[in-house]
Specification:
single chain; alpha+beta; Alpha-Beta Plaits; 2 domains; 6-stranded mixed β-sheet; two-stranded antiparallel sheet; 10 strands; about 55% helix; lyase; transmembrane; A/G_cyclase
Length: about 425
């Protein structure tokens, strides 16, 4: 049978030294080099001081180590057994360490039985107690070390897989499947607008500082809504909801995260201004749908990620924010998951690499968050879109023109008007 053991290292050495220190204190106590005497006296009602009780602690000794005679073979052999226990236990895992402790107890018992004619310096009861105190100390130290190891592994694992998955693995490794599985998820793509121009203005160390601030800002909001960062790609961030751990609110959480990123952008830009760095604007695309979730890669490198049509759509939607000049674009699948939110329909397009069209929307917020004016503008916009789809170009042109002046963005409505003009010519 092969006993599970640890390789000798700083931890096992420190554990052995701590156990030897405890052993020294116990041996000196057993010899009577120093002792503590406790006294308790109940005083309630015995005097007028109001004192209820008195606890007395006195120190003393009953044995002079320097004037003692021979300790005898029983003492030294027993001490050798205890020293070996202190030195060897930290090299083994708990089951083997338990066997060592039992063996030490048996050895002490046999030693006192074989040399029963000798008068022991330390009673057998105290030596056996010392064996089990040392074992208890080892168990406590091992538990503390294991807790610290788990925290360190969790921090390390969280850098490569979603934090929720790392926590789940820490609780129950068998509960986490390391093979891919299909799930409904929501994916958010966030990309800096004009990053090339920004990178040209900055030195490499300044660009690193700029990106670290940006990634920290995005990641903090993703984590706030229980999402996970899938990867950083240049100046882009891909975040996933429902990937590491299943979620019934993945679409809502992803949308709230995206809206907070845009709403709190002034905070990030304020930090950039304080450091005399270029400010940032960004586009966000969100898509919802089925995807394969799990490890992907080769024998040389694996990555826990998501793949599927939803990932491609989210990336393409983010690219459309430049064309329509809106901060966030979501797909129709995400809109279907959020009946309590209001959206402005933007267009129906063919996404590159996809045979089916996608209807794009700009999220506006919940009905409670929007005032009456915005609600009326949204109704006009929906009428304009319906007229455009039915070929009623006059009505659509009139409504889009008024919305361009009353709502905006102007460039988006100019795009619609140019489309109507082209349709009339064609």
């Amino acid at each position: 049978m092969k006993l599970p053991y640890y390789r000798p290292g700083p931890r096992s050495l420190s554990f052995s030294l701590l156990l030897l220190l405890v052993l020294t204190l116990l041996v000196l106590t057993g010899l009577g080099v120093f002792r503590l005497y406790f006294g308790f006296e109940w005083l309630a009602g015995d005097n007028d001081s109001g004192q209820l009780f008195a606890l007395n602690v006195r120190g003393g000794k009953s044995f002079n180590l320097f004037e003692a005679g021979s300790f005898g073979r029983t003492f030294w052999t027993g001490l050798l057994i205890l020293i070996m226990q202190c030195a060897l236990m930290p090299l083994f895992r708990l089951p083997a360490a338990t066997v060592l402790a039992i063996a030490a107890a048996v050895g002490v018992g046999l030693l006192h039985y074989k040399f029963s004619s000798d008068v022991p310096r330390i009673p057998i009861e105290f030596e056996l107690l010392t064996v089990f105190v040392l074992y208890g100390m080892y168990v406590l130290l091992s538990y503390i070390g294991e807790v610290r190891d788990r925290k360190r592994v969790h921090r390390l694992l969280s850098q490569y897989v979603p934090a929720e998955l790392a926590r789940e693995y820490g609780r129950d490794p068998q509960a986490v499947s390391l093979s891919g599985e299909q799930r409904n998820i929501s994916v958010l793509f966030c990309d800096v607008i004009g990053f090339t121009a920004i990178s040209e203005q900055l030195q490499p160390n300044e660009l690193t500082e700029w990106l670290n601030l940006y990634f920290t800002y995005i990641s903090r909001i993703v984590v706030r809504y229980r999402g996970s960062i899938d990867k950083y790609m240049g100046d882009s961030v891909m975040a996933v909801w429902g990937g590491g751990i299943r979620s019934e609110t993945h679409a809502h959480d992803a949308l709230c995260a995206g809206m907070d990123m845009q709403a709190e952008l002034d905070t990030l830009n304020g930090r950039y201004r304080d450091r005399q760095l270029p400010q940032v604007s960004m586009g966000i695309g969100i898509s919802t749908g089925p995807a394969m979730v799990g490890p992907l890669g080769s024998e040389y490198r694996m990555d826990y990620t998501v793949v599927g049509d939803s990932v491609n759509v989210a990336q393409r939607l983010e690219a459309q924010t430049r064309k329509y000049h809106v901060p966030i674009i979501v797909g129709d699948n995400t809109v279907a998951e959020l009946p309590g939110m209001l959206f402005r329909e933007l267009d129906t397009v063919m996404v590159k690499g996809r045979s089916k069209s996608v209807t794009m929307y700009q999220p506006l917020g919940s009905q409670e968050q929007l005032n009456e004016q915005v609600m009326q503008l949204l109704v006009r916009h929906d009428k304009a879109m319906a007229a455009s789809k039915s070929g009623d170009w006059g009505t659509a042109e009139s409504l889009f023109s008024s919305l361009r002046d009353d709502w905006g963005p102007q460039s988006m409505y100019e795009l619609y008007l140019r489309g109507i003009e082209q349709a009339r010519r064609g």
